[in-house]
């Protein structure tokens, strides 16, 4: 991902900041300036809940790429990678890795919390990208 | 309402075609279709090319011009369309609309993809561009991973089993034995699927469609031209398309492809047909779970019932409904942008009664179902003998 693109994204996307319609209360992530339900333009910034529950998940067993051979971003994840769709608030779901867990411990319905972690390295001396990942709540 | 027919079909063998170039594949399929229609390239009024990611796979864009030139078309409008794995279905629909509009009498839809010139990881990355870059691929989500999450939820909600999913792969491999264009013409057993390498739980290697090179083409004509050209025009009874949010996690029900539901509803309305009138369907089985969702979303069984419907043998050749008589994407192969057109080639072959050992008996209509991504795009066509 190009640096300006990552910089633009990181402000709201990867800090989990959505927007909320002042009129009807619907929460959007990513942010929107107009509500799809009532066309109201009165929306305010809304930090999403940092806790949620797993709706579905998978354990990705095979690595995507050997970045040493290819000029590509390194997605920093250990294999196997547990990926899940997490419900943070009603109608607001995200796809993200579940870290610091044994794959066998993950269930549909498990409660998780957001943490901020490195997710991308651009080459050996390039920029690092950070984003949300989740771990099981203890 | 004006009628539009398919009057010519052509396709290449699908597979790992190391000796054939991207442009050669398109030329071969397109030329075969022109020849099959009894036309010359100068009779074509417009061209729609479906290719998902020729830029990433072979570093070639501007494929409308490329194939118009290769095929010797007469400076006609040549347009590339893209809707991920549904690019081919969209190309047919655009050619159909071009004829309905009156701007063209005879149009070509051509789908081409050359996937094996890049490494498997580059191909996986190219395919992942059909998901949300910012919210899915960025976190390491691949297509097997996304469909695996659909499968997990389907199992959780409806009691669907991995064996039921495996049965789709087994059946599609069996059908492909009789398809000379298919990538895999070899029978497999449920144990083979269950024992194959785990890619992304619960999706195993033999639940996945392969990486495929290939091209397919159809020639569409208005009623007057079609009747002059052939005694067996295959009519387009319906052509419909739906869309949905690109990210799986944004869907209210992640086991339902709303784009498919919408396209199917429109297709049944247009054709005045019901699901029970369809005895042969080519569905988009990029993963085995996708075949289950398709049967439900197209209306052939109730939501959540597809696993049992398949287990009871309803989807075999000449059973209740013949699903993927061609071998489907799983065994025939999945050359992304060409897949939707290869489905139409199968539909026409079946309706012309030329499918030999995989022929579905007494069919009047065939449906094709082509999906982009995890369901961000869906295209449904119904073809018929009248
Ligand atoms: Zn609102």
Percent strand of chain A: 35-45%
Content of β-strand of chain B: 15-25%
Write out the strand line-up for the largest beta sheet of chain B, numbering strands in chain order: 3-2-4-7-1-8-12-11-9-10
Give the radius of gyration of chain B: 19 Å
SS class of chain B = alpha/beta
Major β-sheet annotation of chain A: 6 strands, antiparallel
Helix and strand pattern of chain A: HEEEEEEEEE
Output mean pLDDT of chain B.
Answer: 97
Query: Which pair of chains has the greatest number of interface residues, and how are they split between the two chains?
Result: A-B, 35 and 34 residues
Which shape of chain A, going by the Cα principal axes? flat
Specify the CATH class of the largest domain in chain A.
Mainly Beta
CATH homologous superfamily (4th level) name of the largest domain in chain B: Thiolase/Chalcone synthase
- At the third CATH level, what is the topology name of the largest domain in chain A? OB fold (Dihydrolipoamide Acetyltransferase, E2P)
Q: Please estimate the helix content of chain B.
A: 25-40%
Query: How many structural domains does the protein architecture of chain B include?
Result: 2
Give the SSE order of chain B as H and E letters: EHEHHEHEHHHHEEEHEHEHHEHHEE
Strand count, sense and closure of the main sheet of chain B?
A: 10 strands, mixed
Coarse shape of chain B: globular
Distance between the termini of chain B: 14 Å
């Amino acid at each position: 991902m190009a640096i300006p693109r990552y910089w633009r994204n990181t402000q709201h996307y990867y800090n989990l900041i959505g927007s909320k319609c002042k009129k009807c209360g619907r929460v959007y992530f990513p942010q929107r300036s107009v509500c799809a339900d009532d066309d109201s333009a009165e929306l305010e910034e809304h930090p999403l809940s940092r806790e949620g529950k797993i709706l579905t998940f998978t354990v990705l067993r095979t690595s995507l790429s050997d970045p040493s051979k290819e000029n590509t971003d390194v997605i920093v994840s250990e294999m196997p990678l547990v990926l899940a769709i997490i419900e943070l608030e009603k109608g607001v779901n995200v796809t993200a890795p579940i870290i610091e867990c044994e794959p066998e411990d993950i269930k549909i319905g498990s409660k998780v919390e957001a943490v901020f972690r490195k997710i991308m390295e651009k080459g050996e001396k390039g920029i690092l990208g950070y984003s949300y990942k989740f771990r099981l709540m203890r | 309402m004006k009628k539009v027919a398919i009057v010519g079909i052509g396709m290449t063998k699908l597979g790992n075609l190391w000796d054939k170039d991207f442009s050669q594949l398109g030329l071969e399929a397109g030329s075969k279709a022109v020849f099959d229609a009894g036309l010359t390239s100068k009779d074509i009024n417009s061209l729609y090319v479906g290719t998902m990611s020729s830029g990433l796979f072979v570093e070639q864009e501007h494929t409308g011009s490329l194939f118009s030139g290769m095929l010797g078309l007469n400076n006609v409008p040549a347009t590339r369309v893209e809707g991920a794995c549904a690019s081919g279905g969209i190309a047919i629909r655009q050619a159909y609309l071009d004829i309905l509009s009156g701007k063209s009498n005879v149009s070509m839809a051509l789908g081409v993809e050359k996937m094996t010139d890049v490494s498997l990881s580059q191909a996986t990355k190219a395919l992942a561009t059909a998901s949300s870059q910012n919210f899915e691929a960025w976190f390491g989500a691949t297509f097997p991973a996304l469909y695996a999450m659909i499968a997990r939820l389907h199992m959780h909600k409806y009691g669907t089993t991995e064996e039921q999913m495996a049965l789709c792969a087994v059946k599609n491999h069996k059908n492909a034995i009789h398809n000379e264009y298919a990538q895999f013409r070899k029978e497999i057993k449920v144990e083979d699927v269950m024992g194959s390498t785990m890619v992304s739980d619960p999706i195993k290697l033999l639940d996945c469609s392969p990486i495929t090179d290939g091209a397919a083409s159809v020639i569409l004509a208005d009623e007057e031209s079609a009747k002059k050209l052939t005694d067996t025009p295959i009519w387009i009874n319906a052509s419909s398309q739906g869309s949905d949010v690109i990210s799986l996690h944004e869907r209210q029900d992640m086991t339902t492809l709303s784009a498919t539901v919408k396209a199917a509803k429109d297709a049944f309305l247009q054709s005045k047909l019901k699901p029970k009138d369809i005895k042969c369907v080519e569905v988009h089985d990029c993963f085995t779970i996708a075949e289950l969702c398709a049967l439900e979303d197209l209306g052939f069984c109730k939501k959540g019932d597809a696993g049992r419907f398949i287990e009871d043998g309803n989807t075999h050749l000449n059973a209740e409904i013949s699903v993927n008589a061609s071998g489907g994407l799983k065994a025939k192969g999945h050359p992304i942008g060409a897949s939707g057109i290869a489905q139409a080639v199968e539909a026409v072959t079946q309706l012309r009664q030329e499918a030999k050992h995989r022929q579905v008996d007494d069919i009047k209509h065939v449906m094709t179902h082509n999906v982009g991504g995890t369901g961000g795009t869906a295209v449904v066509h119904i073809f018929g003998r009248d």
